[in-house]
Amino acid sequence: MATRFTVKGLRASIEGKEILKGIDIDIRGGEIHAIMGPNGTGKSTLASALMGHPKYEVTEGEVLLDGENLLEMEVDERARAGLFLAMQYPSEITGVTNADFLRSAINARRGEGNEISLIKFIRQLEAKMKELEMNPEFAHRYLNEGFSGGEKKRNEILQMMMLEPKIVILDEVDSGLDIDALKIVASGVNSMRSEDRGFLIITHYQRLLNYIKPDFVHVMMQGRIVKSGGPELAERLEAEGYDWIKEELGIVDETVGQA
Amino acid sequence: MSTQLNAPVSRENIEALSQGRGEPGWLTDIRKEAAALAGTLEWPRPEKMRIDRWKLTAFGVDRHPELAGDLSQLPEEIRASLPQDAANLVVQRNSGAAYRNLAEEWKAKGVIFTDLETAVREHGDLVKKHLFSVVKADEDKLTALHAALWNGGVFVYVPKNVEVEVPLQAVLYLDDAEAAFAPHVLIVADANSRVSYVDRVLASGAGRSAVAVHHAVVEVVAGPGALVRFASIHHLPESVTDLSIRRATLANDARIEWIIGDLNNGNTLSVTKSDLKGNGSTSDSKLITIGTQSQNMSITTHAVHYGLSSESEMETRAVMRDSATAIINGVTKIEKGATKANGHQTERVLMLSPKARGDANPILLIDEDDVKADHAASVGRVNEEQLYYLMSRGIDREVAERLIIRGFLEPIVSEVPIEAVREELERMIEGKLNA
């Protein structure tokens, strides 16, 4: 069955304040969707709410991955169902090495009795790290501890490559990356494009989309998707900024839940 | 007949015991005097913990084992963690040595590694010079009782300029519910020498259900420029009370590295102290503990700076479960005149149960102006953001929590110098976390 990820009328709040005011997205396997928008319009909240961050309360709507309702699942179950979120601010965890963590994550998917062999795991890990031009030593470093911003982002992409999810959400994965790192990250993502995998790329700049070509572009303001289009929409945003959309829609303040 | 701790230990009993072991007069005298003091001195009073209310009566009777010719005569579970080649190893079973071995290579260089009772007989002058020179018999009821009653033990001597490249190991275990179990460890590292010592204090068989008091004193004398690395793991059962005093005295430019795993299931008093007497001496203490069930623990790391430019680091990490209580003290004392001293300490407590108690008490006592000293202390629960992150990769909550808890202890576990011991420590940690 082809992958299908559907978000219907999603509303979510944090500490009683509504941030998402009805989001609809439909992603099929093979498609890349980009969500763009200025800061403070609810983009990262969408990513966190989809993953199930405990701080966000979903008040309405549906999120289906291949027919399964993700909103009824715990965070780990959503991940095992095939959802992956490359985070904007990944946690640092002392004492847990990158390699141990990744092996636990892979084995959590595979289930007891079907664990990945150590040799196979190491071979895969080394190959993917090479692809991302990561120092092999990072496998034995504590998870994200002391990593630079760019190293953390590569590490998120490494996890994505190792875990082979069905739906990948990249939350501002381009922030804090220089152009070389951006290209490496983008080529990592491109290498994962496939008919049974969908992507949702959240970004505030168009530059990432020069390297990862989206099929659909959505603009988010005030906790809603206010405009959707093809790749040409991203190019126009790059050239003209967001003001023309605000004008077109009569929006004065595009942010949500800010004060 | 077991010795009653709360009653004065009889001088006559002690004398008979000492003479029965063929100990020299000077040692019999130390024991007799200490026995008298034990009747008058008070129990130590650590912060916020009344150890005098613990059950401190079961001193046990003298049970000296046969000396085993090889390790196969030791219980399987004890053997499991011993070095394969059985080299450079001392084993104490109950009240005395069951095995001792030091490779010829080190003997030839003048290194001594044996049980303390044997060292008293064979190297009397050396032992006499240092025994109770670091921890005095007359400090309190505990040190006095220990001086009167210690048995078995370990003696390490490393001559000047000798670097012992392999770790010296000791296993001290109780497998007799009636036995006195009171090892004394004395390590003397002469100028510019270097040595690593690793021990484990365990119970096996009938020792697992013994109602007993394990009282132990460790004395480390580090000469000028000497480096002593001391690692110790205690894993005694719920019914055994562990009273352990460890102390090092450091000459100029000497260094001690303590790695302590207090993983007992019973009440525990653990005091690990460095006296930085020498200029430029340094001390590093790393300690982990896990509190489970209803055990009470008083865990102290302590550094006292006398020497110029002396430096101390102390880091304690505690995981508290069930209704266990731990009072974690970190004491950095800088004496007047110890200019440019630098003391740094950290205590971190991870609380896993609302009924557990974990107090972190950093104490800085500074009597000199031109110094640096700081501390960091925290008591908290498993971090929700970290849990979310791990779970977002498909790891279930329980496993994610376990990864975070193990990770919390890992920076100290990874310092244990012998892989087999490190693995054993990891098994003990798993055991305590799963119990």
If you had to describe this structure to a student in words, what would you say it looks like?
Chain A: Residues 5-247 form the ABC transporter domain. Chain A: This is FeS assembly ATPase SufC. The complex is a heterodimer of chains A (259) and B (435). By secondary structure, chain A is of the alpha/beta class. Chain A has helices at residues 43-51, 75-81, 98-110, 118-131, 149-163, 179-191, 231-240, 243-249, and strands at 4-14, 17-28, 32-36, 56-65, 68-69, 83-86, 93-97, 142-143, 167-171, 198-203, 216-221, 224-229. In chain A, the strands form three sheets. Chain A has a six-stranded mixed beta sheet with strand order 6-9-10-3-11-12, sandwiched between helices. In chain A, a hairpin with a 2-residue loop joins strand 11 and strand 12. The longest helix of chain A has 15 residues, at 149-163. Chain B has two domains: 11-278, no CATH class; 383-435, no CATH class. The model of chain B is unreliable at 1-8 (pLDDT under 50). With 435 residues, chain B is α/β, with parallel strands linked by helices. In chain B, helix 1 runs antiparallel to helix 2, helix 5 crosses helix 6 and helix 8 (384-391) crosses helix 9. In chain B, 22% of the residues lie in helices and 37% in strands. In chain B, a hairpin with a 2-residue loop joins strand 1 (89-93) and strand 2. The chains are: A alpha/beta (259), B alpha/beta (435).
| Largest interface, C-beta within 8 A | A-B, 29 and 24 residues
Sketch the topology of chain B as an H/E string, one letter per element: HHHEEHEHHHEEEEEEEEEEEEEEEEHHH
Mean pLDDT of chain A: 95
End-to-end span of chain B in angstroms? Answer: 34 Å
What is shown here, in short?
The complex is a heterodimer of chains A (259) and B (435). By secondary structure, chain A is of the alpha/beta class.
